[in-house]
Design a protein that fits this description.
- The protein is built from twelve helices and 24 strands.
- Helix 8 packs parallel to helix 10.
- It folds into four domains: 155 residues, Cytidine Deaminase, domain 2 (3-Layer(aba) Sandwich); 81 residues, no CATH class; 54 residues, no CATH class; 216 residues, Cathepsin B, Chain A (Alpha-Beta Complex), CATH 3.90.70.
- With 557 residues, it is an alpha+beta fold.
- 24% of the residues lie in helices and 24% in strands.
């Protein structure tokens, strides 16, 4: 690895390395970019083991998975074994396994040392050792172990993610006018290039013509030994004794398939690589998904579940769905409609609630603020529930539970007509909707289930603080409050269980101004509301009933 051989720099946390706490190996991922030291940027769980030993990897299966996940510039630099027993023995076993895995991955041994680490099942401590590659009797402890305070900054300042497409060209230059030797020289260079491309360890994602209405290309993965270059090269290239010219016309991918492969793109799996940067992983990872049956297909769900397990990600939220993939282009990872970004997470700028010693429970994740007159739609006086629904759906979009566009008022109305809740004349009207209708639309468009909380009077809201706090802590979704002719979006509660003092974090869709965050906060359009303010005025009316819609977070990957 070079640099200071006695310093180990950990860019990922100890908690990440040990999660989940169970017997097995973790492959330690590092990069020569981050000198001068040994470094561990992340870790991948080993998922495939030999039946005879729960700590001995199935290297073939492991290499097949990890070869896809690791982007250029990152290698396996060691391994951590979580197991009871002698720590140094376990660390050596981990180092030996990582060395063998590197050979399976055909990693060039630029580093002469490798990390072996061990942790006990019942302890948070990890012991790290440095081994000489191929000589595991030569072991040395690290004198200094450094945990980076801002690892994201280091990774993205030292390295970058580049995407490019390159065409293969082979320029040939003649040493003088020795035309008679050119064909032999050209043939020799072609043979060397073909030998590299036909390496059994090489894999190619070959894109074919579009086969679906949305212009998705059919693709297949071919290994080097499956390619046949002889026919294509002989048919496409020739030399003349006078000009030594080559015909560089484009070739169809199918011309490179072996004779024994009868392949038709129209019947092939549609494969596409996606790059992800989930929270807690410092570098992008790559996954290849089959798209023929869509990202909700059961088999694809199992692939995502396996990836979550390998990367130590939670198994109850969609962090590796296609909607979460890194995008390259002018709209990279911004949810934009008509090139206009909506305000997000406006509650982060508001003052404290004023509840003494209360416990704050808030929406978990990001949302967009939808309010009257947004997008040029005049819904002043009738569209507050529609706007609350749009804010809720934006939460599901930004958390990647859904990839549909946030629906317009008309699309919301059409969904209610489609399920038979409303007559066709409802579409295009200015009729109000309430919590019940919002639940129908969420089920229809997103497949999201909801709980309904019915209150006979606004005076009952403080009694529901404990239940609402539990909702935000377990589900984390925005809540719609409908009462009388008004609708609000609830983003959290601040509740002192001993005194009963409480406040409600309200996002008010009745705002009609432009998206000026300072104006919105100062005007109280997003802020904490006490059930009764300092002037004795009740925010929730005692003579009105209220229905609260509590969307449930889907349990999915």
């Amino acid at each position: 690895m070079g640099g200071d051989g006695k310093l180990l720099r950990l860019l990922c946390s100890k908690k990440t390395l040990l999660y989940p706490r169970e017997q097995g190996l973790r492959w330690l991922i590092g990069s020569p970019l981050f000198l001068p030291s040994f470094n561990v940027v992340s870790s991948f769980r080993c998922l495939h083991y030999l039946p005879s030993d729960p700590c001995s990897p199935n290297f073939t299966k492991e290499a097949d998975d990890i070869r896809t996940l690791l982007i250029r510039g990152f290698d396996i630099v060691g391994a951590l074994l979580i197991n009871n027993g002698d720590m140094e023995f376990n660390a050596r076993k981990a180092a030996e396994a990582s060395c063998k895995m590197r050979s399976y991955l055909s990693v060039n041994a630029e580093h002469h040392d490798i990390i072996g680490a061990a942790a006990d099942l019942n302890s948070d401590s990890i012991q790290f050792f440095k081994y000489e590659m191929g000589n595991f009797k030569n072991v040395e402890s690290f004198s200094t172990i450094s945990y980076e305070t801002d690892p994201e900054k280091l990774v993205w300042e030292k390295g970058c993610l580049t995407r490019c497409e390159l065409a293969l060209k082979f320029p040939i230059y003649s040493p003088g006018n020795i035309a008679s030797d050119m064909e032999d020289m050209f043939s020799s260079l072609i043979d060397l290039t073909v030998a590299d491309l036909k390496d059994p360890c090489a894999a190619f994602l070959v894109e074919g013509p579009s086969v679906t209405s949305n212009e998705t290309s059919a693709s297949i993965v071919l290994h080097g030994f499956e390619l046949d270059f002889s026919r294509s090269i002989s048919e496409n290239v020739w030399l003349t004794s006078n000009h030594m010219e080559s015909d560089a016309k484009d070739l169809a991918c199918s011309q490179f398939f072996s004779n024994n492969k009868s392949l038709s793109f129209s019947s092939l799996r549609e494969l596409k690589p996606y790059h992800f940067l989930p929270l807690g992983i410092l570098h992008p990872i790559t996954a290849i998904y089959e798209l023929r049956y869509g990202e909700n297909e059961v088999g694809q769900s199992e692939i995502r579940r396996s990836l979550h397990s390998r990367l130590g990600l939670p198994l109850d939220r969609p962090l590796l769905r296609i909607a979460s993939a890194l995008m390259f282009g002018t709209k990279a990872n911004n949810i934009i409609r008509n090139d206009y970004p909506y305000l997000k997470n406006v509650h982060t700028q508001i003052p404290m609630s004023g509840v003494s010693e209360g416990i704050v429970s808030l929406v978990d994740g990001s949302y967009e603020y939808y309010h009257y007159l947004l997008d040029g739609i005049d819904d002043n006086g009738w569209g507050c529930a529609y706007r609350s629904l749009q804010t809720i759906i934006s939460w599901f979009r930004l958390q990647r539970y859904a990839s549909i566009e946030v629906p317009s008022h008309r699309e919301i109305q059409q969904a209610l007509v489609d399920i038979g809740d409303k007559e066709p004349s409802f579409v295009g009207s200015r009729e109000w909707i309430g919590a019940i209708e919002l639940g129908f639309v969420l089920d229809k468009l997103l497949g999201v289930s909801c709980k309904i909380m019915n209150l006979r009077s606004g005076a009952e809201l403080p009694e529901k603080c404990r239940e609402l706090a539990k909702h935000f802590e377990s589900q984390g979704t925005p809540v719609m409050i409908g009462g009388g002719v008004l609708a609000y979006t609830l983003l959290g509660v601040d509740y002192n269980e001993t005194s009963g003092d409480c406040a409600f974090l309200i996002l008010d869709p009745h705002y009609t101004g432009n998206d000026d965050l300072k104006k919105i906060v100062n005007g109280g359009w997003c802020g904490w509301k006490k059930p009764v303010d300092s002037k004795g005025r009740s925010f929730f009316l005692k003579d009105k009933f209220y229905n609260l819609l509590l969307p449930q977070r889907p349990n999915m990957v």
